[in-house]
């Protein structure tokens, strides 16, 4: 399924033009600019502590806190973006379902509210889990170094982010939350790789500070991943029936 996902990702742009979905990318472009300005503001808040980084134990604590603050703000911003884009991503998943299964998608307020609710639940579970792990990892970072907390936090958040993309299709397929999580665990590597694509796409602009990369990462990648994830899921279901 992993190879199938990358095939669907490469075909997602043609799907956008085929279904005339390009105008739905405009809200994400606006969000990407807000995100860019927010990250720059966050860097300034953390930066004022840098003068204490050479103070023996205090310096180690400051560097550890910066690493944790960076990891926390990173996952917060990622899920904040995805929650804001939920209505559009849900619509894209409906279009994919319609294209693959032939089932015509009609606007359903109950479905709309449920999609937002499920996205918020995923965020709460992801954030709670990551905060717990970061606390444990922060203790181990005394020996392993701050890079350890960065890698663990990055991996955990990527799994939950990847799952959030597939959950649009799972929800449309009327899968309950428990069954959806079971599917996510059974397809752990597929879900993780999907989330890593988004996380890396956000991480690179954060490090480089290039505005145009933010616009590409935030306004394009989430929608393309939703299309690719929904296509991968519905085609796998269809092949089993």
Assembly classification: single chain
> What is the alpha-carbon Rg in Å?
19 Å
User: SSE order, as H and E?
Assistant: HHHHHHHHHH
- Overall mean pLDDT: 78
Tell me the number of strands.
0
* Portion of residues within helices: over 70%
Number of domains: 1
Q: How many helices in DSSP terms?
A: 10
Write the layout of secondary structure elements.
Elements lengths: L1 H17 L7 H22 L8 H29 L1 H16 L7 H36 L1 H27 L4 H10 L1 H21 L2 H9 L1 H20 L1
Helix pairs in contact: 1-10, 2-3, 2-9, 3-5, 3-6, 4-6, 4-10, 5-6, 6-7, 6-8, 6-10, 8-9, 8-10
Task: Explain the overall architecture.
With 241 residues, the protein is mainly α. The protein is built from ten helices and no strands. It has one domain. Helix 2 packs across helix 9, helix 5 runs antiparallel to helix 6 and helix 8 runs antiparallel to helix 10. The two termini are 16 Å apart. About 2% of the residues have low confidence.
List keywords for this structure.
241 residues; mainly alpha
Summarize the structure.
The protein has 241 residues and is mostly helical. The chain is 86% helix and 0% strand.
